[in-house]
Amino acid sequence: MTLLIVGATGTLGRQVARRAIDEGYKVRCLVRSTKRAAFLKEWGAELVRGDLCKPETLTEALTGVTAIIDAATSRPTDSLTIKQVDWDGKVALIQAAKAAGVERFIFFSILDAEKYQDVPLMEIKRCTELYLAESGLNYTILRLAGFLQGLIGQYGIPILENQPVWVTGASSPVAYMDTLDIAKFAVRALNVPETQNQAYPLVGTRAWSAEEIINLCERLSGKEAKITRMPINLLRAVQGFLRFFQWGWNVADRLAFTEVVASGKPLNASMEQVYTVFGLEQEQTTTLESYLQEYFGRIMKKLKELDYDKAKNKKQKNKKSPMKQSSKVNS
User: Fold this and answer.
1) Rounded Cα–Cα distance for residues 101 and 65 (Å)
2) pLDDT tens digit string along 76-110?
3) Do 69 and 5 touch, CB atoms closer than 8 A?
4) Pairwise CA distance, residues 221 & 265, whole Å
5) How many CA atoms lie within 13 A of 220 on its CB side?
6) Which residues 6+ apart lie within 8 Å of 122 measured at CB?
7) Are 124 and 86 in contact (CB under 8 A)?
8) What are the angstrom distances between the C-alpha of 219 and each of 151, 164, 173?
9) Separation of alpha carbons 234 and 239, rounded Å
10) Number of alpha carbons in the 13 Å side-chain half-sphere of residue 66
11) Spacing of C-alpha 216 from chain mean position
12) Contact criterion met (CB below 8 Å) for 198 and 141
């Protein structure tokens, strides 16, 4: 089986590629830059240049492909809009996959997308799900809530560096999941017939609010967080202002997602049936506590080592003989 992974250089995509390679799949990765994706080639993946926003580049990439795992999404740092990547690009990929006779298509969506039709990314995900279901491809949709990996930049690093931690509106509890575990489910879906033409929630062991995560980070780091609260009405005002300018549309669309994480409504779902269908054990899923414990344990150990080295160097400097110092001056 030749497996094409789209978005393989991203936080989730790279874990999907790693998992698939480790399980013996022949992995091909669609990439815009082979230089940036060099690590995938070192792992054993085949790299093929292409771009979702350039449909003409997809035909060659899909030649001989049996299945697709699509982990691509627009990034805040990209010049491309959410619509260009997550709608136009995905429609082009689905059409190309259908024309190429691809047998399986694994798509990552967002949990509860149908509840937020005024939020561009959520509405696009909902529409893409419908388009994929009507395409005639054998699909599996995995609906995610959030990545554990994102918590490091959002909470961990600011707390360690005494920088503000931003909290918006009524914090929605989110069932974050490790991308390694998500990759496990995605690759497993390829060999579980029951997952064909089905959609499943894929979330962590429990939902955590921003306040709970901050408290845990404070306990593990021994530092107090500097919390800055951003009123949701202010963000809405900024979002509305940006929509008056074409250059601000992309930013406004991203700000709209705060309506999801600041609504107070939990992003969570039952996973009992999902574990049964996929034949996986919930006890093997990484918890948020264990993930942050490992992170802060590693960081705090490194900081102690750095402090020890500084103290040692300072002590050695203070031990220099006055006679040697004076002889250097006389010479």
Assistant:
1) 8
2) 667 778 899 999 999 999 999 999 999 999 999 99
3) yes
4) 28
5) 26
6) 110, 112, 113, 115, 116, 257, 260
7) yes
8) 15, 17, 19
9) 9
10) 8
11) 21
12) yes
**8 Å CB contact between 50 and 61:** yes
User: For residue 305, with 0-12 CB atoms within 10 Å meaning exposed, 13-18 middle and 19 or more buried, which class applies?
Assistant: exposed
What pLDDT score does 231 carry?
Answer: 66
- Can you tell me the distance from the alpha carbon of 68 to that of 29, in angstroms, rounded to the nearest whole number? 10
74 and 109 Cβ atoms separated by less than 8 Å: no
pLDDT in tens, 267-323: 999 999 999 999 999 999 999 999 999 999 988 888 766 654 555 556 556 555 444
Tokens 């949709």 sit on residue: 141
Six-digit token string for 201:
């929630």
Closest to 168 in 3D by CA, of 256, 74, 267: 256
Sign of CA pseudo-dihedral 150, 153, 158, 161:
positive
Tokens of 254: 């991203």
Residue recorded with tokens 């799900």:
129
The structure's pTM equals 0.87
